[in-house]
Amino acid sequence: MPYTCPLCQLPLTQHLPSKGYYCKNKHHFDLAKEGYLNLLAVQHKKTKEPGDSRAMMRSRRNFLEAGFYQHVAEAIAHMIDKHRDKTPMSILDMGCGEGYYSRQIEKLCKNPENLDLHGIDIAKNAILAAAKKQANAKFIVASNKRPPYSDHYFDLILRVYAPSDDSEIARLLKHNGLLLTVTPGPRHLWQLKEFIYKHVNEHELNVSLSKGFEQIDCQRVSFKIKPEQEQRMALLQMTPFAWRAKGEIQSKIQRAHELEIETDFVLTLAKRADFSV
Ligand SMILES: C[S@@+](CC[C@H](N)C(=O)[O-])C[C@H]1O[C@@H](n2cnc3c(N)ncnc32)[C@H](O)[C@@H]1O
Ligand SMILES: [Zn+2]
Fold it and tell me: Of the four listed, 45, 50, 174, 192, which is most buried by Cβ atoms within 10 Å?
């Protein structure tokens, strides 16, 4: 069983016909009708609605579903296939949001029937949306800081712009497990930043690896996109600098004629250094 109890850390087992999950201490968690499991203990909830808001989640979903980041999804699927053998593979998307990349992995990877797909996010609204759209994947509401999964359950962890804890990632991965991280490259969203900052600086292309991991593959994916006015606003909402672009700046971005924006992503695949032979 993949899950552990968020209250006492014992394994959770599923009981039929209710499909609810229980631990030996009789802590009980219902499976929502959309098929996801809420394992976020109330005492670990710092706010009423932790994680991205519903509005942010909708913006991201509309933008991603329009296909603007399709090349990134393709590169992710390709990298997974390249480093995969014929045996079934369990994959966890950490901070999966509304599950776009998980759906794309199922769609684009070879032999998806051999993939055991999981997603975790602290935002319940995002997990609900993800579960509704992908019956073949298992989604839970929980924090990446205390992911309630058994030790060494996963073959690969995907992390796309999401916070996480290195020691928990090492705990969740099998000994030869892989960590695939997607981070922004030096020229990511350059033309959007030009509206916001006086001087836009190209930061160095240095990928900081999680502690105890060593890089085994890396790919830079850069391409240009031309989002319409509303889609630009959605994209802006997805960025950490959205809060800087208020009022006049925001309307300049919205009104700009045919704005072409560079995107720049770095995919880094790493494996646990302590088991590299
Ligand atoms: C920038 S979004 C990226 C979402 C998705 N990976 C994507 O690229 O479409 C960051 C996500 O991390 C989630 N998040 C933030 N803090 C978290 C935590 N402590 N545990 C799990 N998820 C978290 C947010 O709710 C949000 O869905
Ligand atoms: Zn328990």
Answer: 192
* Number of other residues whose CB lies within 10 A of the CB of residue 277: 3
What is the C-alpha separation between 32 and 131, in angstroms, rounded?
10
| Residue 167: partners with Cβ closer than 8 Å, 6 or more residues away | 211
Bond preceding residue 112 cis, omega within 30 of 0: no
Q: Which ligand is nearest to the CA of 10?
A: 2
Mean per-residue pLDDT of the chain: 92
Tokens of residue 16, six digits = 């039929």
Grouping H, G, I as helix, E, B as strand and the rest as coil, residue 152 is coil
- Pick the residue whose CA is nearest to atom 12 on ligand 1: 95
In angstroms, the first-to-last Cα distance of the chain is 29
Cα gap 199→242, rounded to integer Å: 17
Burial of 102 (0-12, 13-18, 19+ CB in 10 A): buried
> Has residue 44 got a pLDDT over 80?
no
Mind listing the domains of the chain with CATH numbers?
A: 51-275 (3.40.50.150)
106 lines ligand 1 (CB under 6 A): no
At residue 246 the predicted structure's pLDDT band, cuts being 50, 70 and 90, is confident
Q: Cα–Cα distance between 255 and 273 in angstroms, integer?
A: 49
Contact 233, 152 (CB under 8 A): no
* pLDDT over 90 at 8, yes or no: yes
- Report how far ligand 2's centroid is from the alpha carbon of 30 (Å): 13
Ligand 1 neighbourhood includes 61 CB (under 6 angstroms): no
